[in-house]
Amino acid sequence: MQTTRLRPLFQLASLNKEVIRTVAVASAATKTENLKSWNEIPGPPSLPIIGQIHHFFPGGTLGNIQDPETIMRLFDKYGPMIRLDSILGKPPLLFLSDPDSAELILRSENWLPYRPVFQSLEYYRNDYKREKGQKVQATGLISDHGEVWKEFRSTVNPVMLQPKTIKLYSNVLDEVAQDMIVRMKANRNEKNMLKNDFDKEMNLWALESIGTVALGCRLNCFDPNLPADSPEWQLIQCVHDLFVVANELDFKPSLWRYFATPTYKKAMKLFEHHENLTKHFLKKGKEQLKNNSGGENGVLAKLLAINEEVAHIMASDMLFAGVDTAANTVTATLYLLATNPEKQDKLREELRSGSDRRYLRACVKESLRIMPVVSGNLRKTTKEYNVMGYKIPKDMEVVFAHRDMSLLEENYPKAKEYIPERWITSNDDPIHYGNTHPFAHQPFGFGARSCIGRRIAELEMDIFVARLIENFQVEWFGPPPRIQQESLNYIKGPFNFIFNDVKK
Ligand code: HEM
User: Fold this and answer.
1) Which of 190, 214, 258, 280 is 20 to 30 A from 383 (CA-CA)?
2) Is the pTM of the predicted complex or chain greater than 0.95?
3) How is the chain split into domains, by residue range?
């Protein structure tokens, strides 16, 4: 009785704390007198006229930017802030590995957060595809900003983030996972390794899974006779190529903002191809909907009820952002469980016991900490900031390097070790995640602009990892896999997994 009466008071107190914290952070952020200038921020030295571009040449400090360790090495050298000046029309960039500073900017930019990634996609959707002077409407969450983004996001949030709607997919996602297990069992060689390319197999699973949610129907990706030029394989290749070209155009120095480079032309073709493939799959989804009457409405039906354009845009973003992300996260989790057999056994025990799946969730979370598929979050500053005594001007792009922050001992004790327990242990345990700065680890981003597919991704991955561990004793041999950063962190082969059957 008493606790019920007191609850609103507690809620009010914690709400107040949050408001005070946000206001304090925002005002500290905007006091920018007597600060060191942007040019004084440490970073690779600039040369007259060419600036820092030479660092991107082979052998240069940033020559191997595909290796995620490159940025880590720069933090070791320059400290928690690294300045990269404007190169070939690309705005200046600041890398940050200080959680307090990340919190300061992310919170202050949370009203209309501007995430400056995929400018090439933005250009394709806003300019390349449009007649001159044509009114720009919403193009998608990945490519829009400002009020247009806000309106679209508020329209789709209730559908995409509603636990009741997402839960509807538990059974069909389990069906997908079990079908994938059957496919993997049939696809092993005499050493119990997969005969097909492991990464492509994971992409097939991810596409089949997100397809069931985005389109409300099975795509039949696991058909053993699926032709190599089928729309399913084409989509998988297209998404991967898009992330690679986006990295070339949007992150590395590139002249595409001045003239049509070969990579730019390739990117425009790929974006168009992706759009056409989305239309193909959407048609399939809509036909299926016509045949399904009754039952609870899923994501596609609810988005179509808003309007056709919204459904199309959202399906396109899901078929872009929802494939390689989930596939690489499952691969990372499997690798970490294979190389930490005692954790794998503990997980299998939990799955056998039928208890709630807290350890399963912790295993996936911990793999996102150690081997995240996205290295950092980005925001463009809409005002000036005081970050650690330096003035960060308006219109700067800031990367919050959560991969690097998550691997620092000062943020996570035993940072390089795979310890799922840290996500479920009690808060008096030194490894408890709650003892860490919350802005040191943001694998799904932050606030209003955070990943809209998070709940879907977590459900898909939990279900599939559970089925994998129930069915296979997973082993790994040889050196760790190489990670290649191409907008996303791709885990590269050889994939030395062995999938022995679990003894029942
Ligand atoms: C392990 C899986 C995934 C990870 C780690 C991940 C991570 C992220 C991150 C870091 C962002 C940027 C957030 C920010 O700027 O604050 C993002 C945005 C986004 N993600 Fe995911 N994602 C995953 C899966 C998915 C899936 C399955 C979908 C499809 C349903 C999806 C759709 C999107 C979309 C549409 C955005 C843009 C949201 C916006 O700007 O409003 N993601 N994701």
Assistant:
1) 258
2) no
3) 62-501
